[in-house]
Amino acid sequence: MSIWSRITDALSALAKGESLSDVFAYLRTQPERSAGFAIAVIALGAKMAKADGQVTRDEVSAFREVFHIPPDEEKNAARLFNLARTDVAGFELYAQKVAAMFGPADPALCDLMEGLFHIATADGEYHPAEDEYLKNVAKIFGLPPRKFAALRSRLVPDAHPDPYAVLGVTPDMALNDIRAVWRNEVRESHPDRMVARGVPQEAVKMAEKRLIAVNRAWDEISRERA
Hints:
Layout: H1 3-15, H2 20-28, H3 34-49, H4 57-61, H5 63-66, H6 74-86, H7 91-102, H8 107-120, H9 128-141, H10 145-155, H11 163-167, H12 175-188, H13 191-196, H14 206-225
Helix pairs in contact: 1-3, 2-7, 3-6, 3-7, 3-8, 7-9, 8-9, 8-10, 12-14
């Protein structure tokens, strides 16, 4: 069964009167977490799309930055997006449900935040309201501030990023310690590792940009220290 078939099943539960937050609770009981990951990104992304006061076509299509969506499943993805966007429940409830679904300090929560950053920057602009939204979601997820800053440095198209911030390290760290952080980031970006922790196969292309960013940062630091 594909991830989109599982999402269709979850949407069918909504037709019976359950809320989207109820679906998160249901998905928490399932051994397959990839559908929960996809629904979490789409639902929180839809809430974020309202953060800057408008929902642009770029933001809606931004889900293709994170997922491969087959043409025959686009209606289900759009339905889920619009459902979350119009739901009276606040994003805080969604974020709490997602955090509970994966559990404290689960690495998949960081992957999920990365997906939200891709959506936030899809229109070429990172709005202050989106930054505040993502900070609040990260806090609910329990992500350390340094990890949030590293994600922001990698993914927000701003001035040339500080390579130390991209890796989540500090200039006073020994080069060997920084190398260990870099190697861990590369290892955790491998598609097999990502799938194992719940990232759908359809979404592991996120790792491509992550690897480019962390490898560039390590190259800059190692050349600087040479």
